[in-house]
From TrEMBL:
The record marks R63 as: Transition state stabilizer. Residues 1-25 form the signal peptide. Binds 2 calcium ions per subunit. Binds 1 heme b (iron(II)-protoporphyrin IX) group per subunit. It comes from Lolium multiflorum. GO terms for molecular function: heme binding; lactoperoxidase activity; metal ion binding. The keyword Calcium applies. The active site is at H67 (proton acceptor). Keywords: Calcium, Disulfide bond, Glycoprotein, Heme, Hydrogen peroxide, Iron, Metal-binding, Oxidoreductase, Peroxidase, Pyrrolidone carboxylic acid, Secreted, Signal. Belongs to the peroxidase family. Classical plant (class III) peroxidase subfamily. This is Peroxidase. It is an enzyme of class 1 (oxidoreductase).
Amino acid sequence: MADAARIMHYVLAVSLLSFVAHAHAQLSTTFYSRSCPSLETTVWEVMKQAVVKEQRVGASLLRLFFHDCFVQGCDGSILLDAAGGEKSAGPNANSLRGFDVIDTIKARVEAKCPGVVSCADILALAARDGTFLLRGPTWKVPLGRRDSTTSNQSLANANLPSSGSSLSTLISTFASKGLSATDMTALSGAHTIGLARCSTFRDHVYNDANINSSFAARRRKTCPRSGGDSHLAPMDVHSSRVFDNSYYQNLMTRRGLLHSDQELFNGGSQDALVRQYSANPALFRKDFVTAMIKMGNINPLTGTAGQIRKNCRVVNR
Ligand code: HEM
Ligand SMILES: *[C@@H]1O[C@H](CO)[C@@H](O)[C@H](O)[C@H]1NC(C)=O
Ligand SMILES: *[C@@H]1O[C@H](CO)[C@@H](O)[C@H](O)[C@H]1NC(C)=O
């Protein structure tokens, strides 16, 4: 009797487990727990040193992961140096940073677990640690992605949103990747950290009406009408080195840096959520984590697809 009950219990447990596995696609937070147990510590140590040296790099790696996932899925394609690849696309060229940190992590991981861990997964972990090191939330990262053998510049130009995007374009760009408007508004909160170049916010501070006038005047001082394209300004006027919810408070006082930022609070469908995030930091952090995990699930290569690159910049020969 007891045995029969135990068997029944076992059968139920197994079918429940396989259901859960299917519900969560193919990635798993324990993917490398046997094949590379030191992985997460290695990523953390390198990220910690890098952020101590330069805080902005935490922001740069978060952005790098976003730009990887939106083009062909989270497959490390952004890391390839090949001519005509994603790195040379408009939103990426002279803009993306932190590739050297990925190289350092990859070299240390290869020394410990050769040929096992993908560049795509290293980037997912580095983005999580960069966020946490700037006092943002942390989360368990589903792993098991493999690396692409291609990188496509025109696909990057077509799939990445630009700072001039309207609210409806932002919503549809994220929807095309399976992300909701709520995910989009929560993920945009990443603009609480890091810096932007004058060329990305010039139009907004000179030509838009929905901007705080003293804020616009301040930004125009270091971002001339012509020239100075690479002059930098903080994405969050209040605290661009700290991952907090002040991004949303800025939007409510019309101090979004990019046109696309202010679109989230300009009388449209996201106004109510911006108000909620500005008043409730815990809700923002919770929704941000949910959306980061969803973004990390965009079209991964798994099983025997793709490869595990030895060097994140080049396809294995
Ligand atoms: C909603 C659409 C988005 C647009 C139009 C957009 C656009 C931009 C632009 C134009 C910059 C400045 C780049 C430069 O001047 O070189 C920037 C920076 C940044 N973006 Fe976004 N972004 C979006 C969403 C996101 C998402 C989803 C994330 C991450 C979850 C993110 C993370 C960042 C970070 C952290 C920076 C600062 C990077 C650094 O300082 O190196 N952005 N973004
Ligand atoms: C890049 O992607 C586009 C759109 O899918 C495709 O038409 C083009 O052939 C690709 N280019 C390369 C070099 O693979
Ligand atoms: C612009 O922002 C400043 C503070 O950042 C505030 O004192 C001022 O009232 C705002 N101006 C307008 C017109 O909203």
